Amino acid sequence: MSKSNLVSIRIITADIRRLVQFFEHATGTTAKWATDDFAEIKSESFTLAIGSTRTLAFFGEGVAQPGDNKSIIIEFLVENVDDDYERIKDLTSDIVQEPTTMPWGNRSLLFRDPDGNLINFFTPVSDEAKKKFL
């Protein structure tokens, strides 16, 4: 079996400018645009790719449905989730869960992006969780 590494997740959207702007504000990172239909938000360990519905023509008709995801949570490790909450609550009215300490030791903030994708900003707070991530 060959080695594989997850390097990015791509969100397909009908309104790429709106979604890229949302993630730029949420993450504090400027997107790099490859074309008018494709941009990337890069971190040290991961890339969030955002493509317009027009990019689906390269993969085949009906392969993805924008704004229809209810099974994936996109997670970001942040320095202080409570501080980020103060910024995020002004960015979206769709806060699913205010900062809460989870049984596995992360303090998590759940919210939805403009397309309805579930986003988790979390900060490890227990000793065990800190060992895992920090």
Q: How do the helices and strands line up, and which of them pair or pack?
A:
Layout: E1 8-13, H1 16-27, E2 32-35, E3 38-42, E4 47-52, E5 73-77, H2 81-91, E6 95-101, E7 106-112, E8 118-124, H3 127-133
Parallel strand pairs: 1-4, 5-8
Antiparallel strand pairs: 2-3, 3-4, 6-7, 7-8
What's a concise summary of this model?
The chain is an alpha/beta fold and 134 residues long. It is 22% helix and 35% strand. The chain has two domains: 53 residues, 2-Layer Sandwich (Signal recognition particle alu RNA binding heterodimer, srp9/1); 63 residues, 2,3-Dihydroxybiphenyl 1,2-Dioxygenase, domain 1 (Roll).
Give a written overview of the molecule.
There is one protein chain. This protein is α/β, with parallel strands linked by helices. It has two domains: 1-53, Signal recognition particle alu RNA binding heterodimer, srp9/1, CATH 3.30.720.120; 72-134, 2,3-Dihydroxybiphenyl 1,2-Dioxygenase, domain 1, CATH 3.10.180. It is built from three helices and eight strands; from the N terminus they run E-H-E-E-E-E-H-E-E-E-H. The strands form two sheets. A four-stranded mixed beta sheet has the order 1-4-3-2, with helices on one face. A four-stranded mixed beta sheet has the order 5-8-7-6. The longest helix has 12 residues, at 16-27. The model has no long low-confidence stretch (mean pLDDT 93).
